Amino acid sequence: MSVMYNRVALIGLGLIASSMHWAMKRGGLAGEVTGYARSEETRETARRIGLCDRVCDSAAEAVEGADLVVLCVPVGVMGAVAAEIKDALAAGATVTDVGSVKRDVIAAVGPHIPENVHFIPGHPMAGTEYSGPESGFAELFDDRWCFLVPVEDTCPDAIAKLRAYWEALGSNVEEMDAEHHDLVVAVTSHAPHLIAYTMVGVADDLRRVTDSEVIKFSAGGFRDFTRIAASDPTMWRDVFLTNKDATLEILGRFTEELFALQRAIRTGDGDHLFDYFTRTRAIRRSIIDAGQDTDAPNFGRTGTPKS
Ligand SMILES: NC(=O)c1ccc[n+]([C@@H]2O[C@H](COP(=O)([O-])OP(=O)(O)OC[C@H]3O[C@@H](n4cnc5c(N)ncnc54)[C@H](O)[C@@H]3O)[C@@H](O)[C@H]2O)c1
Ligand SMILES: O=C(O)C(=O)C[C@]1(C(=O)O)C=C[C@@H](O)C=C1
Fold first, then answer.
1. Which ranges of the sequence are coiled-coil (predicted)?
2. C-beta of residue 238 within 8 angstroms of C-beta of residue 203
3. Is 129 in the pocket of ligand 2 (CB under 6 A)?
């Protein structure tokens, strides 16, 4: 592949930025990659492991002369970082971000972006429970979705170029508006994370009673919860504080359904439980049949999964 941007600046050198860096190197997509992280320790680690061609000591220095600037910091500090770089941005550059929430980030970053710079918010739907500069890997975005959430009147050529860049990083790209994005991720990512955090917290309370049995005997289901609940506390605190409305909307619906199931268990309403689980199993089947979950153990097979 060939160079798509001459200089890419990564601000915030954690899981997502480091994965973007290695994916750019794999594809030869950037002439030079500069980087900046707030802590001296992170910058030192980045230099030691060869993360970025040049690690700078200020965000403004990192974005100088960059034709693509990617904000890879927690969503709660996106606005502050945009304020730090605004005077150093090159005319005609594109500023994007990878934040998990879009409405709040657009409101915080947008006002700092000069007229002669394109601002195209983004969000790769790919991650792990690890964080920091050493956690990234080139394959993270392969065959994953990346949302682009352009604001009104954005130059179509700049959007097309950023789309092609994410495709070259390995992703499929979908455009949508910020409000819709925030609701979709509240259902698919944010509420599930909160539920996992809660479930692991409940089990931890219980563990004090059962003396480690909860962890010792957990198989697939609970282990998956513990993986998700190991995700970065700063990142997820910011996600819930900034995607408040959509998350509360989904949690409200979740709680109603949970109460209905709780009632069915208490009253012995087996039909309610059976019908509910039949409906959810059908949803899982349709995802597999549409070829959207190639990780499923029986992917490609037909018939009903074994109970
Ligand atoms: N982890 C995921 O699964 C995932 C997936 C998609 C998108 N995101 C989003 O990507 C962004 C980064 O997440 P991550 O997982 O790479 O986090 P991370 O914790 O691995 O990295 C964040 C980096 O930002 C730096 N940083 C924090 N505040 C800063 C500041 N004020 N100025 C400069 N640097 C600062 C930290 O030192 C760290 O290097 C977040 O907005 C998150 O919502 C995360
Ligand atoms: O795979 C994981 O560990 C993730 O949590 C990734 C995940 C997700 O929920 O799907 C987490 C947050 C993001 O904004 C995007 C992706």
1. none
2. no
3. yes
